[in-house]
């Protein structure tokens, strides 16, 4: 019951903030809000990486395409804890489609044939160690994925903000809708998605993904962000003071797999 109250309050706060800030921030076009299944495959050095990449390219993404799901992100963790790891970012407007994904895939004969080396790997020669999954709801003010140019080499930054309480988390979501979207846009950031964590570990939290041409561009943009007058004004608002609403930030850097649609 407490979790349902929190989710309802969080989504309501996002919606209210989005309405008041829509004229200020350039966000994706209006549309039905997406949900995201984010999955991390924990690997060991050696053949696991190749096996998992082949699974993404030859089985998973084609099957998701047949289901009408996309664009799908496929990423290799370059900087962060516990490498090697490969991540999938799977969007859908249907929570049920994401929750039932593995069962649906198991009924797809073409998928099962292409996925066989990965899907039916043995304990003696596993395809992965374990995988973890998170379910997120797109922010009301950023309702769906905005893909990058997949023809150019890019890096991706995944940032997760953990909050000390449900109320603090709601205020951090509100902060994005109260000017933070606009600051990112004005400084030339390209956001892929912003998601409110509904199911997963280390809750309450939110996660968003940015993309950059390279690390130098990423560092330059963050330097500009930290020194931006609008950010300084927003971040000193007593309602949004960082040490009150965020207790930990996880920062991961990815490169896209060749099959990634994002």
Question: How is this structure best described in words?
Answer:
The chain has 262 residues and is an alpha+beta fold. The protein has one domain: Alpha-Beta Plaits (2-Layer Sandwich). It is 40% helix and 26% strand. Strands 1-3-2-8-5-7-6-4 form an eight-stranded antiparallel β-barrel. A hairpin with a 5-residue loop joins β2 (73-79) and β3. α1 packs parallel to α6 (166-186) and α2 (47-66) runs antiparallel to α5. The protein is globular and about 55 Å long.
**Shape category:** globular
Biggest pleated sheet: 8 strands, antiparallel, barrel
> What integer value in Å does the Rg equal?
19 Å
Strand line-up across the major sheet? 1-3-2-8-5-7-6-4
Please work out how many helical segments DSSP would assign: 9
What's the helical proportion of residues? 40-55%
Instruction: Give the DSSP E fraction (strand runs of 2 or more residues).
Output: 25-35%
Q: What would CATH call the architecture?
A: 2-Layer Sandwich
Q: Assign the structural class, choosing from mainly alpha, mainly beta, alpha/beta, alpha+beta, or little secondary structure.
A: alpha+beta
Quaternary state reads: single chain
Number of domains: 1
Tally of strands: 8
Straight-line distance between termini:
36 Å
CATH class group: Alpha Beta
Quote the average pLDDT: 90
What is the fold-level CATH name, i.e. the topology?
Alpha-Beta Plaits
Elements, N to C (H/E): HEHEEHHHEEHEEHHHE
pLDDT < 50 runs, ≥5 residues: 1-27
